[in-house]
Design a protein that fits this description.
single chain; Ribosomal Protein L15, Chain: K, domain 2; three-stranded parallel β-sheet; 6 strands
Length: about 150
């Protein structure tokens, strides 16, 4: 390999050489047009500026409502508890994280009732659906909030 045989594999656009005479296509005003802020040095338009026209985000109607008190729960169904834990096991956020069902433990945990449960488990979560609570207690387990 020789230095003269090296070539760049990434294609780059050649820079635009402006103000080099009328025949270059970018002479005189250097492609900036005549008069106005866009022709002066040191100016810039904010993103999405549409030249004084009512901007898109103001033309579109407002929709919906964001509840500031909305809580997002991490949810786990009882079918996963059945498949993962032995009878009599303590199930909490740490155990579910070790089992790979939770990616982060800072969100509150809610147990949902999809699937069947035959083992007696001691489950600790922030919230239980009514069907999940029924299934856990029917199997001889406990539902602990907190």
């Amino acid at each position: 390999m020789k230095l003269h045989s090296l070539s760049n594999t990434f294609q780059r656009k050649p820079r635009k050489r402006v103000g080099r005479g009328d025949s270059s296509g970018n002479g005189r005003t250097a492609g900036r047009g005549d008069k106005g802020a866009g022709q002066r040095s040191g100016t810039s338009y904010r993103p999405y500026f549409e030249g004084g026209q009512i901007p898109l985000f103001r033309r579109l109607p407002k929709r919906g409502f964001k509840n500031p008190n909305h809580r997002v729960y991490t949810v786990v169904n009882v079918e996963y508890l059945e498949a993962t834990f032995e009878a009599g096991a303590d199930v909490d956020k740490a155990a579910l994280k070790r089992a790979g069902y939770l990616s982060k433990t800072d969100q509150p945990l809610k147990i949902l009732g999809d699937g069947e449960l035959t083992k007696a488990l001691k489950v600790r979560a922030d919230k239980f659906s009514e069907s999940a609570r029924r299934k856990i207690e029917a199997a001889g387990g406990e539902c602990l909030v907190g």
